[in-house]
Amino acid sequence: MREELANTFKAEKLNLLLLGIIIIFAAFLRVFMLGSKGFWVDEIQSTAFSQNDISTMLRYISQTEFSPPLNYLVLHFVSLLGKTEFIFRLPFAFSGILTVFVAYKFGSLLFTKKEGLITAFLLAISPFHIIYSRDARMYSLFTLFSLLSYLFFYIAVKKNKWSHWLFYSLSTSLSLYTHYFTLFLILSQIAAIFTFKNFFSSEDLNFKNIFNSRIFHFLLSLCLIVLLFVPWAPYFIRQLTISQIFIPSASLGNIILWVLDETFRWLGAGSGTGLFFFLLLFAFGIFTSIRKFNEQTFFLLLVFFLSLLSSIVLVITVKWLFQPRYILFILPFYLILVARGISETANLLNRLRVNKTPAFSLMLAVIFLVSSGQIKNIFVLEKENWKAAAEYLSKNMVHNDLLIVKPSWVYWCLDHYKDLLNLKELSNQNTGVWFVRPYDAGPTEELKGIIKTPFVLKKSFPGWNTINVWFSPSRIKKLPLPDLPQGEIKKTNDKNDSASFPEWYWSTASGNLPLIQMNKNFSGSKYSFTLTTTDPFLQNFILLSPQLILSSQPDSIQRESLQNLFFYGRIRASDPNIFPGIDINFYDLSNNFISCTNLFTDVHMTGDLTYWGWISKPIKVPSGSSFIKIAFKIPSINKKSGWVEFDDLKLYELDSNHLN
After folding, report:
1. Would you put residue 262 in left (φ > 0), alpha (ψ -120 to 50) or beta?
2. SS3 assignment for 625-639
3. Which of 18, 401, 486, 534 has its CA 20 to 30 A from that of 55?
4. Higher pLDDT, residue 638 or 446
């Protein structure tokens, strides 16, 4: 008896030692060089939102994101400690480490401690889990809370204690506040409790003992989850109206193959050997566990495949853009069955009189080797290296250069790392056009046709999405925009004859000047101004600039070679329902109106303002044009202290001739 207890104690110590080593290794893989890489676009969006006050942050999320708020709240509070990449990512690295321990507990609970240890090891070295444990997004946190939800659900069903059901409700609520795919988990839990005989029995339908039944406790727990979600419900309803990214039409077979291929490649260790090896062990784990651990095996398969099926249904019904990281939470369930496959393979080899220990060690070594290449890439390869791209531009651009990007959110990423307005001012410096585009792409044919002078690839920043920086030494000229006056701005008598007025003028639909305050910033190359209402006004307001002469100086671009202008600027507003715009009006030498080009923003959201968008568009110059006027159009503002900001406005003339 004493010898048996001693052996048990020795085995327990060894078990704890191995678990400690696994968790330390998991921590190393998730924290090492955590802040060495810059943010990618989704991290920039999350951290930008989080640095506002909580009410503003929640408003931004509900207006632009189809995501719950917990991830942003975590980022908000951690930002009080600092605003570096390391600080913002640290909570998610910690949640990834904790998930390894929870996976051990869950694997041990379902099977044995051997499966628990193998599961913890597999999750610790999983490239899929490491990547998103080093990311300032919700995926690592979601995996932790969803796994805790299932751990407490399983314990609560088995022991049927109020404390366990309470922990189940709390962990599930936290999961739901992290990602809406928690609904898949809840659906699988509902299916499980009514499917498995050890989860549900005739005693649970005994009305004399209904208050002690597992069904009653489960339903009560679901009610508590709903109550805890109620404060976010109005925001969630608003989010249902947000436009999402969708895929083009595809056949049912292609959709299923796409989702399955993406999922299993990420759940394993990539394509090729890693994919095959993990799938083989997964299948063997299922096959060898069905008889001895029937309930546990089907329980894991229910969670796994119901979530996959739900994802496929979403893709088919609403053409939702599937990303494997959205279902990272099913990874531990997959790895538990892989762990069963490894354990049973070792047992099989032992029965064949093959030494189990070296065979078992060899399998784990092979798994580590097929995963190590992917793990190495995590520390070497950027997702999107906006930090280096912004630094390169700030070192090589001069303040009169024109910067064009595609898509327009690239401005946001570059601005996050470097103020590109503070650029070098060099005398006699030839200016040109810079073009930045992610996804390893180049200038569009339309842009090449406008710029004329060929673009040269100056620098590439490799990553999951390679960022290319191109340059064209095109002949361009930045037009000086007219300063706003210090005093009163006059009203036009006839806005249709505004070309005859050499000063700033305003007009409204009602003819009454709204009560506004104007702040301006014309320092250096910065051209910005803000209009703030002191009272709501319901009329459209137009602010018209003095005339700007096209190509008037001797060394400027000749008028006959001037075919295009390029306008750059940012428009921000206090309310997402305010849609300001800019008109470029063309006139001939006799002040006769020729035509008008309307400019509007590409609408996006940032964490610094409620509504904003960039204008970055070419403008065709009509024949006979000699000068222009800029009309700033501001729609009705129905709230006191509403405002519109026109920021960092720039106007360039583009020569259609090639440089010699």
Report:
1. alpha
2. CCEEEEEEEECCECC
3. 534
4. 446
Rounded Cα gap, residues 484 and 491, in angstroms: 14
Same-domain check for residues 156 and 300: yes
Q: How far is CA 141 from CA 64, 65, 91, 94, 95, in A?
A: 21, 18, 8, 9, 6
Domains identified in the chain, total number: 3
Of 423, 440, 474, the domain-final residue: 474
- The radius of gyration computed from the CA coordinates of the chain, to the nearest angstrom, equals 31
In terms of domains, do 302 and 187 share one?
A: yes
Query: What average pLDDT does the segment 101-118 reach?
Result: 95
Q: State the virtual CA torsion across 258, 261, 263, 264 in degrees, nearest 10.
A: 170
Local confidence band at 660 (pLDDT 50, 70, 90 cut-offs): very low
Per-residue burial over 116-128, b = 16 or more CB atoms within 10 Å of its CB, e = otherwise: bbbbbbbbbbbbb
Q: Could you tell me if 76 and 54 are in contact, meaning their C-beta atoms sit under 8 angstroms apart?
A: yes
Please indicate, yes or no, if residue 4 is contained in any of the structural domains: no
Count other Cβ atoms within 10 Å, centred on residue 494: 9
Residue 496 inside a domain? The answer is yes
The CA distances from residue 607 to 23, 348, 602, in Å, are: 35, 57, 16
Share of the chain above pLDDT 70, in %: 84
β-pair type (490-491, 505-508): parallel
Q: Which of 332, 111, 287, 304 is nearest to 191 (CA)?
A: 304
Break the chain down into helix, strand, coil percent, rounded to 5.
50, 15, 30
For residue 177, the model assigns a pLDDT of 97
24 & 132 share domain:
yes
Same-domain check for residues 445 and 339: no
> Are 46 and 94 found together in one domain?
yes
Q: Tokens 């300001």 — which residue?
A: 580
DSSP class of residue 596?
E
Q: What is the mean pLDDT of the chain?
A: 83
252, 315 contact by CB (below 8 A): no
pTM of the model: 0.87
* Region class of 204: left (phi > 0), else alpha (psi between -120 and 50), else beta: alpha
Q: Is 461 a member of any domain?
A: yes
Cα→Cα distances 174→106, 204, 272, Å: 18, 28, 36
Amino acid, res. 574 = S
Residue 315: domain span: 13-380
SS3 assignment, position 578? coil
64-97 pLDDT tens trace = 788 899 999 999 999 999 989 999 999 999 999 9
How remote is the C-alpha of 409 from its chain's centroid? 12
Of 460, 607, 462, nearest to 88 by C-alpha is: 607
Q: How far is CA 380 from the centre of its chain?
A: 21
